[in-house]
Amino acid sequence: MEKHLHCKEFVDTISSYVDGELSEELCAELDKHLSECDNCRIVVNTLKKTIDIYHQQAEREKVPDDVKERLFYRLNIEQFRK
Ligand SMILES: [Zn+2]
After folding, report:
1. Which residues span the domain enclosing 45?
2. pLDDT tens digit string along 44-60?
3. Which residues make up the environment of ion ligand 1, defined by Cβ < 5 Å?
4. 63 CB-contact burial (10 Å; exposed 0-12 / middle 13-18 / buried 19+)
5. Ligand 1 center from residue 6 Cα (angstroms)
6. Share of the chain above pLDDT 70, in %
7. How far is the centre of ligand 1, averaged over its atoms, from the C-alpha of 28 (Å)?
8. Of the ranges 14-18, 21-25, 70-74, the best mean pLDDT one
9. In a domain, 27, yes or no
10. What spacing in Å lies between the alpha carbon of 76 and ligand 1's midpoint?
11. Residue 61: is its pLDDT beyond 60?
12. 56 vs 15, 31, 67, 81, CA distance in Å?
């Protein structure tokens, strides 16, 4: 089950993430793609800021999806930026 994620697919998948529909498997795919693609890191960084705002607005109890939380952690691309 090894396939390469293309940037368009990555962005499409990121959209699913925002909807809270991302599986752990896809999470790993995104993580892998991010490690290889500067452009998508920028996309994610932008998205991440949006999600930060979303998280700030939502009450903690209303964000129960821990898959979402894990992905959020994985997509913490700050570590890639120097
Ligand atoms: Zn990409």
Report:
1. 7-75
2. 888 778 777 777 776 55
3. 7, 10, 37, 40
4. middle
5. 6
6. 59
7. 14
8. 21-25
9. yes
10. 16
11. no
12. 19, 24, 18, 24
- Scanning the structure block, which residue is given the tokens 């913490």? 76
Q: Report the domain count for the chain.
A: 1
Cβ within 8 Å of residue 7, ≥6 positions away: 33, 37, 39, 40
How buried is residue 61: exposed, middle or buried, by Cβ count under 10 Å (0-12/13-18/19+)? exposed
Whether residue 78 has pLDDT greater than 80: no
- 79's CB contacts (< 8 A; 6+ apart) are none
15 CA → ligand 1 middle, Å: 14
Amino acid letter, 38: D
